[in-house]
Amino acid sequence: MLGDGNQMTGCVPQGAPPDDALLVVRAGEGDEEAFEVLVRRHSPVMLQLAARLLGDRTDAEDAVQDAFVSAWRKIPEFRRDASFHTWLYRIVTNRCLNRLRSRRPSADLDSVPEQAAPDHQASPARAVESRAAAHALTKAMADLSPEQRVCWVLREMQGLSYEDIAATVGISLQAVRGRVFRARRHLTEAMSAWR
User: What is the pLDDT of residue 14?
Assistant: First the structure.
C-alpha cells in the first residue's frame, strides 16, 4: 500500500500506466515484470527501426531481441542521463550497425513491407514503375556505408533530430550532418532517373 491509499499491483499503480522511469528503477532492482512492460511498450518502435536499418524482418527481430537481452543485463548500470527510449535506440542501432558491417557489401530491403499506394485504382503500368523505383532505392541504399545508412534512416525515416542521432550513434553532430549529407547526395544521384 502507498501512503495515499493507492494499491500497487507489482510495480504498477492500479488504473494508471507506469512511466518508463519507474519501470527502469524497478527493472534495475531485478523486477522482471517491470522489464516485460518496457519490452512490450518499446518493441514495436524498435522493431520498425531495425527493419528499416537492416531490410530483413528476421534479422530485425534477432537484433531487437539481442538488444533487449543486453538492456536487461545492463539496466542496473543505466545512469538515466538519457531516457530509456533513447538508451534503447542506441543499443538497437549498434546491434544493427554490427549486423550491417558483417554482411557488407549487399543488403536487401525487399522484405520491408511497402506502404499501400494512396490510389488503390493505380494502373498496372504505374504499379510496375513503382516497384522498379522501389527496387532502385533498395539498390541505392545497399550501396551506402552502414554508418551513412543508419544516420539517413534515423533522420529521414525515424524523424530524429541531428542531436538525437549523434547521441544514439555516439558520434559528433558534425559527423552526423556529414553522413546524412553524403547519403542524401548518393540517393539523389542514384534516383535521378526516377524524378
Answer: 55
| Residues 92, 29 contacting (CB under 8 angstroms) | no
Place of cell 550501396: 143
**In this predicted structure, what is the pLDDT of residue 102?**
84
User: CB burial class (10 A; 0-12, 13-18, 19+) of residue 48?
Assistant: middle
List phi, psi (to 5°) of 53: -75, -40
Looking at residue 8, its pLDDT comes to 39
Q: Which amino acid is at 48?
A: Q
The list of the chain residues with pLDDT below 70 reads 1-17, 104-122, 195
* CB 22, CB 28: distance < 8 Å: no
Determine the distance from the C-alpha atom of residue 51 to the mean position of all C-alpha atoms in its chain, rounded to a whole number: 7
Q: What's the confidence (pLDDT) of residue 39?
A: 94
Q: Give per-residue pLDDT as tens, 160-186.
A: 899 989 988 889 999 999 999 999 999
> What residues contact residue 130 under an 8 Å CB cut-off, 6+ apart?
117, 122
